[in-house]
Specification:
The protein is α/β, with parallel strands linked by helices. It has helices at residues 3-13, 58-65, 88-93, 111-118, 126-136, 138-142, 153-165, 184-199, 211-217, 235-239, 242-249, and strands spanning 18-29, 32-43, 47-51, 71-78, 81-82, 96-99, 172-176, 203-208, 220-225, 228-234. It has 2 domains: 1-95 and 172-186 and 205-252, P-loop containing nucleotide triphosphate hydrolases (Rossmann fold, 3-Layer(aba) Sandwich); 103-170, no CATH class. It contains 11 helices and 10 strands. Keywords: Amino-acid transport, ATP-binding, Nucleotide-binding, Plasmid, Transport.
Length: 252
């Protein structure tokens, strides 16, 4: 990152726009040290891309934010609330939701049943939430009685994202490899959904190996390599930096 970019980002990090701050965290799986002094900042309203090769630690970063993999050092804060060390369901109540890779839906249940299982808030908002989900995902509305396992990969990804938006109000969505295994045309459809969600006010941390898709959507980007952030810059700047793209991501 250039000096001017670093200074601009530092100034942004000190503002009221910061939604999530990951500050110098370390994460272990047993004796294995996976994340090393990792820091990143997500500003409200942004799409932030976290890219890197297989095994770089991208999913572990998301799991650490969600409290699924314990952080052994450092701090994670959302707004003014410190969240590391909390249980995943407590972090979910803070408005953070995670869509894991592999489109985890209940294949033997209908679209409607999948959504009802996810809408566990119990606060009387379910009807309004369903209407909003079906507005955002008209294809799911058309298939609400269809078993999830009989839908295409792209439709299942839509359902997985829709499930994550139900329950406590989500203002930060963590997406783990949403384009994985999808045909190029379907990747474009998923990208359009991500953009629409962001336009509707959802801040997004996007983990992707598809660098072209991720950088095309993102405002800011971090490159992760063997558990360490090795590059950060505005996404458009990284996308046009051929040397960095080839060196860090193997994209020529």
């Amino acid at each position: 990152m250039s000096e001017s970019n670093a200074e601009a980002k530092l100034q942004a990090d000190d503002s009221d726009d910061t939604l999530l701050s990951v500050d110098s965290i370390d994460t272990h799986y047993g004796e294995s040290h996976i994340l090393f002094d990792l820091s990143l900042t997500i500003d409200r309203g942004d799409i932030v891309a976290l890219v890197g090769r297989n095994g770089a630690g991208k999913t572990t970063t998301l799991r650490s934010i969600m409290g699924l993999t314990p952080v052994t050092n450092g701090e994670i804060t959302k707004g003014d609330e410190q969240i590391q060390g909390r249980e995943p369901h407590e972090i979910r109540k803070q408005g953070i939701s995670w869509v894991p890779e592999e489109r985890r839906v209940f294949s033997g249940l209908s679209v409607e049943e999948n959504l009802r299982l996810a809408a566990h808030s119990g606060d009387g908002k379910q009807t309004d939430q369903f209407e909003e989900i079906y507005r955002r995902f008209p294809r799911l509305d058309e298939r609400r009685e269809q078993d999830a396992g009989t839908m295409s990969g792209g439709e299942q990804q839509m359902l997985a994202i829709a499930r994550a938006l139900l329950g406590p109000d989500t203002d930060l969505l963590l997406l783990d490899e949403p384009s994985e295994g999808l045909a190029p045309q379907i990747v474009d459809d998923v990208a359009a959904i991500i953009r629409e969600l962001n336009d509707d006010g959802v801040t997004i941390l996007l983990v992707e190996q598809n660098a072209e898709m991720a950088l095309g959507l993102a405002d800011y980007a971090y490159v992760l390599e063997t558990g360490e952030i090795v590059h950060e810059s505005p996404a458009a700047e990284l996308a046009t930096d051929r040397e960095a793209m080839e060196s860090y991501l193997g994209v020529k």
